[in-house]
């Protein structure tokens, strides 16, 4: 057949033509630009506008950054070196580096202590943040870290924090021993042991072992103060927030209303008014003669503030769980504490992670507000001692740019981590 | 709790208070209540002791005494001889003013940035995410201080506008940016201007009535009236006509350079501008994320379904996407408004006389009435946030999915 067919047709192509490359406008960068930058006329106008904006931004900042002076002792010297040219006077950062980070009262020979505590923070946080990839034994160090950091930053004898740590260990052992007899009994037993340990620590804590120079709280300052307030308040407010959220979900009207009033009151007022309370009002409500550090009072109020917001986030997580999960817990015969610990909270907390991280980032940014009640955190240091000094009066952009950059790095890093964690924890297959 | 003191059953044993689920919740609530009362009593007792030791009492009489300090930006009449109460009211009005201005501009910034973040244009998308990330991750206090610094340290002094060859010049001859604030033309309300204002308000009502009627007609008959130009016409034509009929009763008072400063016009102080602008761009970044999330929350199927019904892109946006996206956008938007109001308390950092700076700042320091001042301050913010929550609940109930 094919032979006859071959004779009846004049010409049949029996090989494919080689593929020709697509036209130049449809490949590589040209196509990408056509699709992403110049798809339509309004789109092209937008592109041009964006390029103009970027050009002005770069034209304003690049010479200033590249031409910056890093080595001078005062703004006048900077201006002499620059001699009318555009350039930043970044020398203020190298000159006042320690003040920006540690405040102006922290003893300069002891800077290694907060620096070491900061480095160890990563070691302590890593097993919590990357729990899938790091050995669980590292969590032991996380447990020890708060006491170690307290000793490093505040100084003094190592005995009180050590005794306190042992008290927590003893409380945990007591809790485990009593857990068979019910959750409530175990918690009470653990708390009892803890109180005994604290009292013991108070009475025999005077022994001087491994003494570091003691630094009072009011000498803390700079970015260190922001970090202390941020980490302490966030870690304290998560357990309190969980308790408040569970209380708000509770069937018991009195407990529910106590939690609702607390949460709504705290969420209804700005943080600044709570800081005013810490600064001028709280002292009236303490027994006469007690002197409380301002930093402790501020930590109490910021923790209360953060726990109300975290409680709302966790309440959202609890509400998002299907009713069946609660019923499943009941039908397995678990009591309230068991159902919460084994079934409800692990899921609810997982849903709440992005919200909790948002609150944590917001809280860390809000720690700058303490500069309003004349504490010398990073912003307070810049506005107070540094800009008021005769050497650096007028160096605004470098200092505030530096502060903004520090906060940006921390907050952006944390929010990127939270997005990564969300993907990591995403166990449903959608 | 009566059950505890008055057992109803013969077989009641005290251990049932902990072990019987019928009574356990009462036990816990009783304990919680007792602990709460104990804490309050303890704090109250300390308060009484401390006040007695300091020779103070709780009284609000200081509100009637003369304040004795000046406020540079006031909406109502105020002198240093006015009472602390008047100063507090000035502060409240200033708070509401900056919160209102910042809400309006933050919404505009946020909607523009949020929509542009979804643009097909790569460069614009990246630029907008740069804006959002930069402003969301830096404390608002730093932004307020930076913008305040621009206002006071970078802008020229009024004297720079003087001379034949001045260093600075007014924009369009009517707006001057100086380090003492921004001077803009001030409208002067002449006789008969009320008629123009009333006409304008009526036109606004008329626009809403027209759109309502058009919507009703559309749903009833399927006939679509034009929306855009009739609305504009109803809004502006009657007011402009009345304006000229009444003989142009509203005139503008332009700021003019006289002596060492500008005279006339309206002076907007640097603290207000700094606070307003910083709150707007900071919160705008958050609103942009809300807007983006809201638009993305409407599934693609909705767009495709509308397109397959033959709707045009513009109408798909107005009739299908936006109503559904707004349901997602508005609740977080309202809580952002609440955040703006609360963040406006940072005014104290740049010296804008809001309620925190007057009542919680100068009045508190002058009278030493810390408890009363902070209490009033908290009460004010609490009222505002409860009011906004109430509005939000009403809205949420109104737009809730009506399931049948």
Topology:
The complex is a heterodimer of chains A (430) and B (404).
Chain A: H1 2-8, H2 28-36, H3 41-66, H4 75-82, H5 91-95, H6 97-102, H7 112-129, H8 139-154, H9 159-178, H10 183-204, H11 222-249, H12 253-268, H13 271-281, H14 294-320, H15 323-331, H16 336-366, H17 378-388, H18 396-425
Chain B: H1 2-5, H2 16-19, H3 21-54, H4 84-116, H5 122-136, H6 140-154, E1 176-178, E2 181-184, E3 186-189, H7 193-221, H8 228-245, E4 250-253, E5 256-258, E6 261-263, E7 266-268, H9 270-297, H10 300-308, H11 313-343, H12 355-367, H13 370-399
Antiparallel strand pairs in B: 1-2, 2-7, 3-4, 5-6
Structure in words:
The complex is a heterodimer of chains A (430) and B (404). Chain A has 430 residues and is mostly helical. Chain A has 18 helices and no strands. In chain A, 70% of the residues lie in helices and 0% in strands. Chain A is globular. Chain B has 404 residues and is mainly alpha-helical. Chain B is 65% helix and 6% strand. Chain B has helices spanning 2-5, 16-19, 21-54, 84-116, 122-136, 140-154, 193-221, 228-245, 270-297, 300-308, 313-343, 355-367, 370-399, and strands spanning 176-178, 181-184, 186-189, 250-253, 256-258, 261-263, 266-268. Chain B has a three-stranded antiparallel beta sheet. In chain B, strands 3-4 form a two-stranded antiparallel ribbon. In chain B, β5 (256-258) and β6 (261-263) form a beta hairpin. In chain B, α5 (122-136) crosses α9 (270-297) and α11 (313-343) runs antiparallel to α13 (370-399). Chain B starts with a helix and ends in a 5-residue tail after the last helix. Chains A and B meet through α3, α12, α13, α16 and α18 of A and α3, α5, α6, α12 and α13 of B.
Task: Briefly characterize the structure.
The complex is a heterodimer of chains A (430) and B (404). Chain A is mainly alpha-helical and 430 residues long.
